[in-house]
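To: structure desk
From: M.T.
Subject: fold request, one chain
Message: Could you run this one when you get a chance? Sequence is below, nothing fancy, just the single chain.
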Amino acid sequence: MRNVVALISAFTLACGAASAPSPATTTAVAATQPVTATTAATTAAPRTSPPRTATPTLNPAFAEVTLRWDSGANISDIDEVTDIVAHLKERPGIEGGYGDETQIVLAYDPQKITVEQIRRLLADMGHPTKEP
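Reply: Done. Structure tokens follow.
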């Protein structure tokens, strides 16, 4: 019996805890066999994972605004909007954004910048927007 326990323990250590025998089997073996220093040292503790928590995609302190391009904006494609967002992110308060040929959606910090300031920045870049 001692050889079987040693063999199971060696197999468990070699393969990891995922292939360890169920706790019921370990308990049954432990109940029939006295615990020695060798048996206690070779019994692997089950691995535990940290609990999964939801990761928010947007900081709750940030606001989001959707602005539609005005007729004079002439946005050719999504890549141009990506460039506009990259330029806007250099300004304090603009956290990110995305868009297409018809609109742009921006995440911003309302304590650092207002929607009107964002609209003025876009107009200065040659991309006017309609009132939100």
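Reply (cont.): Residues 2-42 form one domain. Let me know if you need anything else for the meeting.
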